[in-house]
Amino acid sequence: MENRKENICSCGADKNKIVFSCSGASDVGMISDLVARRLLAEGKRKMNCMSVVGADIKKSIEKFKTKDVLVIDGCPVSCGKRILENHNSKNYKHLVVTEQGFKKGKSPADTNNTQKVYDEAIKMSSKES
Ligand code: SF4
């Protein structure tokens, strides 16, 4: 039988639920980053480094493929999604900040904007992949 405790990371998050963020330089990229960090801080998902996938760290990528993955991208360029797909990762939830009514370059990463995207991330998290 699986030991439930072993699946909990030090932040209290279920290690089987992970989040990647594009963490782009723009305001919407910053929102994606802040939302992922809040999910981690509140124990909802374990945040993992998108760069690990980009850097082709195979052992980690294979591990990620077994998880419930949420990727948050700032804009429709969808860098996070592309990075995952370039590594044959197809099973993930995808949240794009600009699809939540935000415009790149006109959406400060303030409390209200971040809250709106966070709420959507929580909603998506509860859906099946
Ligand atoms: S998805 Fe958009 S905001 Fe995020 S890194 Fe790519 S270009 Fe930047």
Features:
129 residues; alpha/beta; Rossmann fold; 4-stranded parallel beta sheet; 5 helices; 4 strands; 13% strand; globular; binds iron/sulfur cluster
Question: How would you explain this protein's 3D organization?
Answer:
The chain has 129 residues and is an alpha/beta fold. The chain has a single domain (17-124), classed as Rossmann fold (3-Layer(aba) Sandwich), CATH 3.40.50. It is 38% helix and 13% strand. The protein has 5 helices and 4 strands, in the order βαβααβαβα. The protein has helices at 27-41, 50-54, 58-64, 79-85, 111-125; strands at residues 17-21, 46-47, 68-73, 93-96. It has a 4-stranded parallel sheet, sandwiched between helices. Helix 1 packs across helix 5. It binds iron/sulfur cluster. Iron/sulfur cluster binds next to helix 1.
Helix/sheet category? alpha/beta
Please state the CA-atom Rg, rounded to the nearest Å: 14 Å
CATH architectural label: 3-Layer(aba) Sandwich
Q: Mean pLDDT, as a whole number?
A: 92
Helix content: 25-40%
Outline:
The protein has 129 residues and is α/β, with parallel strands linked by helices. Helix content is 38%, strand content 13%.
